[in-house]
Structures are given as C-alpha cells and as structure tokens.
Write a structure and sequence with these properties.
binds ligand F0G; single chain; alpha/beta; four-stranded parallel sheet; 16 helices; six-stranded mixed sheet; globular
Length: 437
C-alpha cells in the first residue's frame, strides 16, 4: 500500500517519501502527516481480521496498537517494531462519575493501563519503530513527564539511547522516576515546556537525534489507535461525544485522524464530536476557540496548572487539533484547578483513579453538560490519559487538605480522605472504628 508524508495544510501540495526525517513542511512550516491509499481495504474484511487477531499469540497481534496495523502501514518491515503489549486498555463504565457530571452514562477509556501507565505508549511504539527503521541510534524529547517515561521505556527495550529534556522541578515524581529507572539520559532544564521544545528542536537537528515529540508524525500514527480500539470495544457504535484533555494537542490530532480514517474506510459512518478540555491557567486553545477560530493562537507566556502534564502555553499541534475539532462539530472547554481536583477525586471514588490532567475530561464533561452543550442522555466517552500513581504527591496533598494552586490559593479538599494515626492499641482502634461504622 502506498504511504507518504504530506503537509497537513490543505493549500500546500508538498509530499515527501515516508522515510524522510522531517517534522514540518519545508515550504510552509506546517506539521506533516502520514497518508495512505486505503482504497483496497474493505471494512467487513478489516474488522473480521482484527477480531481474528484476538485469538493469536503473535506479539504484533497481541499489541493493542499493531493489531490495527493495516491502518498504519508505514513500515517496510515489521522487524523494527518494539512492543511492550501497549494498548488493550479497558473501557470502563463509571456510574458515580456520570452522576457527578449529571449525565445518564459515561465510559472511560483508561490509557493509564498501558505499560508505562499513560496514553503515550500507543504512539511511542510507532515512533520507536520508525526510529529503528531509519537506523537512528539516539532519540530525544521534551516532556511534561509522560512522553519521557514512555520514550525511555521503548528506547530501552529497543536498544536506543534516550535523551530526555524536562522542565526542572515541574514534573510529577512518578514520571521522573520512570525515566531514571529505564536508563534515560535525563536533562532538567530551567525553562518551561514550550521554551525547551524550541531548544530541543534545534539540538536534534544539529546533532542528528531523532525527535519523538508529538510533532513526529509516526507518534500520531500509533496514538490514533486509541480511538480505533475504543470503537472496537463498543462494537463500532460511535459515541456522541469523545472528551479529552488538551496540552500540546497531539492527542486530539491523533484521535481525530484515527476517526477520520475509520470513516474513510467505511468502518464507521459518522464522527463523534470532540471536546477538548484545558486547564484554565494553560488554555490558549480554549481562548482561540472562544474568540472565533479565524486567527492564530495566542500563546500563554507563563502557563500554570497543578495538572503539570498539560502545563503548556504554546501547543505545537493547534492547527491540526483545530481542524479535527471543527470537522467533528466539537468544542473546547476550560476548567479550574478546583474542578480538576474534585473530578479527579470522583474518578478515584469510582475505584478507577487517574492523574490530574486526565480528570480534566470529567470536569469538562460536567461543565459542558451544565451548559447544555452535551445533552444529559448523550452517549459520552472520556479519555483518562494517565494513571493515578503518576502523581502521588498531588493525591496526598489533596486528601490531607494541603493543596494549593501555583498562585498560592488553597483548594478545598471536597472529597478529602485524611489518613489517621493511632497508637498500637486494639481497644482505641476498635473504639475509633465504631465511630466510623
Ligand atoms: N494528559 C496527560 C496525562 C499528558 O501527559 C498529556 C501530555 C496530555 C493529557 C495532553 O496531551 O499534549 O497530546 O494534548 N503530555 C505531554 C508529555 C505533553 O510530555 O508527556 P496532548
């Protein structure tokens, strides 16, 4: 099947070979995307083949990304693939969370069940495969923590050196710990994500290091399978809304592409509306959407949020994301620190749990429902992007009433759950338990 890189700008005719080491169009500066000729694919045969692979023990069939490899045929040889059995993440009903959002029903696609505990693994298996196919020895990224954890894991498994750039002091410890444990060369820079991305793009070009941020089109290819797997789990029943957090906006670009392509090959006949939710202190995409979508995005100079994963003020994929949101008839919302914190605790009380950025999905769904944008009987899927244990410090501070916004305002621990210290005395403990029955 033919595969090439094309400039995603519809007005630009540029096309490049699929093995070009390029992240943006040399003519117009826009991001690139992989494009294939899907005409030979027949929807019924395709879904039957994907079902058949569920019975296979072949590593590529067991992967929740490569099981759908027919829709990401960019590799000449699958020997370059490194799989850690990514994907295969559950789609969970969460009645307590639905009640909180005043929805009849919500399901969560929980990407925190991935090998490195975030949605980044779906894209990283594809990005690392391309790095190996190109003969790269070193890969690099800047990250708010999850991309770096994932890249470190896949680079280690694939025998590549991982070079990671992090905003110093601004990533959750669980994520930093992962990068160290997986053996990545870890550089903490005294700057924010947006500043470091500019720096890393320069360094990668100068030093010939392969860049695995979401500007890499192959990351997007892997990540689009999140939408494909979710629809497979629903028997190809398209939800009304797909709600997800937005930071650098690679994920909404990826999911939007996956959905468009499923429609193109005829596996689904309509698109869900995409709702992107940003933290109020790091919400340039929300402001763009509010002000009408004609102009360019106004970057936020000093983005701030306790949901450090989405502490981004200059999202590189905003144009792709805008196209996906608009063509789906979707919206962009923003939520406060308090709304994120409480939605997160509700997801925890559902026995599910997630990291702060992920909870923006539920907080956003609640707000959109209260505004009448999402109907209360709508069929809604929220994406939980990362695992609860990514940021235990946040969890502890919330439950012990010690959580403050970056501006120093104390948040209310609405669902706080203080641990209790007791002496080693069965009588006293029994007495205490009786008061809590
Ligand atoms: N949720 C989590 C847990 C994330 O780690 C990220 C992004 C997002 C949501 C937003 O996704 O950037 O595609 O819009 N994390 C990146 C990182 C930036 O470096 O790990 P996005």
């Amino acid at each position: 099947m033919s595969a090439e890189l094309v400039c995603f700008n519809p007005g630009c005719p540029e096309r490049f070979p699929i093995d070009a080491v390029l992240y943006e169009c040399p003519r117009c500066g826009r991001l690139l995307e992989a494009r294939y000729d899907f005409a030979p694919l027949k929807p019924a045969a395709l879904t039957a083949m994907w079902d058949g692979r569920l019975l296979s023990r072949e590593p590529l069939d067991v992967s929740g990304v490569w099981r759908f490899r027919d829709l990401l045929p960019f590799l000449g040889d699958t020997k370059h693939i490194v799989t850690l059995q990514e994907g295969n993440t559950p789609l969970l009903d969460a009645p307590g969370a639905a009640a909180y959002a005043r929805l009849d029903h919500i399901q969560f696609k929980h990407q925190g069940y991935n090998p490195s505990a975030s949605f980044k693994d779906n894209g990283m298996t594809a990005g690392i495969a391309q790095a190996r196919a190109l003969g790269m020895k070193r890969v690099a990224c800047v990250s708010t923590g999850n991309t770096s954890a994932s890249m470190a894991a896949y680079a280690a498994a694939g025998g590549l050196q991982a070079v990671i750039f992090l905003p110093y002091g601004k990533i959750a410890y669980g994520k930093l710990a992962q990068a160290l444990e997986y053996g990545a060369l870890t550089i903490q820079v005294e700057a924010n994500f947006d500043q470091i991305l500019a720096l890393v793009r320069r360094l990668a070009e100068e030093l010939g290091i392969y860049l695995l941020n979401s500007i890499n089109p192959f990351r997007i290819e892997g990540q689009k399978t999140i939408a494909i797997e979710m629809l497979d789990q629903r028997g190809w029943q398209v939800p009304d809304w797909l709600v997800l957090p937005g930071g650098n906006l690679g994920n909404v670009s990826a999911l939007g592409k996956g959905l468009r392509e499923l429609k193109e090959v005829g596996v689904i006949d309509r698109l869900p509306k995409l709702a992107v939710v940003q933290a109020a202190g790091a919400a340039p995409f929300f402001h763009l959407f509010q002000s009408g979508t004609g102009g360019a995005i106004q970057n936020v100079e000093n983005p701030e949020t306790l949901a450090t994963a989405i502490r981004i003020g200059a999202p590189v994929s905003w144009e792709k994301a805008l196209r996906e949101v608009q063509s789906s008839g979707g919206v962009v919302e923003s939520v406060t620190e308090q709304e994120i914190a409480d939605a997160k605790a509700i997801i925890g009380r559902s026995g599910i749990g997630c990291e702060p950025a992920s909870a923006a999905s539920l907080a956003g769904a609640r707000k959109l429902c209260s505004r009448g944008v999402i109907a209360e009987d709508a069929d809604v899927v929220g994406v939980l992007t990362g695992h609860l244990l990514k940021d235990p410090d946040y969890v502890y501070r919330y439950h012990t009433g010690r959580i403050e916004t970056p501006g120093g305002d104390r948040l209310t621990s609405t669902l706080g759950n203080q641990p209790v210290v007791m002496p080693n005395d069965p009588g006293k403990i029994a007495e205490f338990l009786l008061t809590r029955a």
